[in-house]
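Review form for a predicted model. The reviewer records the input and the model, then writes brief findings.
Reviewer: anonymous (R2)
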Amino acid sequence: MSQYDLIVIGSGPGGYVCAIRAAQLGLKTAVVEKMPTYGGTCLNIGCIPSKALLHSSELFEEAGHGFAQMGIGVPAPTLDLKAMMAFKQDGVDGNVKGVDYLFKKNKIDGIHGTGRIAAPGKVEVKGADGKTQTLDTKAIVIATGSDVARLKGIEIDEKRVVSSTGALSLEAVPSKLLVVGAGVIGLELGSVWRRLGAEVTVVEFLDGALPGMDGEVRRQAQRIFEKQGMTFKLSSKVTGVDTSGKRLKVSVEPAKGGAAETVEADVVLVSIGRVPYTEGLGLADVGVKLDQRGRVEVDAHYATNIPGIWAIGDAIKGPMLAHKAEDEGVAVAEILAGQAGHVNYDAIPNVVYTFPEIASVGKSEDELKAAGTAYKVGKFPFTANGRAKVNHTTDGFVKILADAKTDRVLGVHIIGADAGNMIAEAVIAMEFGASSEDIARTCHAHPTLSEAIKEAALAVDKRSLSM
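Model under review:
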């Protein structure tokens, strides 16, 4: 008999949730984690610390520019960056300790070290002291997550040329920050340092911010960020960073080629995406297939081509989102326990935690047009929402896309304050196959921002009550 029923390699959101669900279902489970603390990139150097800095920097900016108009007189706020970083770390510590507690509560063995699949059913773990041990198991789940994508010829030192990891721990506010990539990570972290005093320039290879999101949302978001003080250089690429001087000299060229310009910066943040982390796992040795993008190939039940080995999260295809990994972790644990685990990939929300927040679920207009799907649009601006008006948070809108024949909701897109929480209503509606009329006939509390969702649903049938 195997020592374990399941060994999960990686303790990020997908890995630790998979392990917990497996243990709940009676499987003897272990988790192998190479970092000194659990939680993976998300809890340690990703989602959680970035949200702490987004929150504290929003309050810093609000105190400096928003309190007076509400009749709150306070001295101009001063920044104690060291204390702000301590606030961030306190939140991180609380979360990773929570995972440690959950492992103990569910009798999961946490094993620190670098895991490698020696063979189906065997995981070799190399500890920090260099010693190795081999664990036997019936099933292995790869939940190793992703790593930052690199720019060729540009070395990340996490001091002056940083990835998202270094950008979360800068020792001083840079006078000038150049962000390479106008995606989610670049805009979130760019927002943090802009609020704290940096002059932020964003260089994007494509012709607009937030590639892949709904076109109308992208355009309005960029206008808002520009109004806040960000500068965008679109259809442009960074081809080099000269680190020899006191200030960095960044070469920026048109994406299609042409004369380069030099942009000076104190810090360059490289945020051009993430790539699956499979290095050192021994996948080639055991014959696990990868696709052209380095992702582990799996079937509909997350099984690789090698019996006994599964994979989830950022290591496989699909959006690189913590909650997507969590749902896949639950699904594969239930499959291993003989149940019917399943993930609905048409109802996975995506959130950008800037201010205002941006959230979406389902199809965009661009995707529906490309697929030739006939659809109706209902749109409602926050300028017409009572709660948004009284709070002076009127930037943005809600847009609902519904099937032209059946009225079934196909996609929902929100840009506005608290969009990340509001999108949950849309996700539930889509999970249950709701129509826009279903949302329109659902009573929403007044005055709330979520009333904009109801009004957008009414607008699908051209019967909004507040416009």
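Findings: Residues 158 and 166 are 5 Å apart (CA to CA).
Further findings: The radius of gyration is 24 Å.
Recommendation: see findings above.
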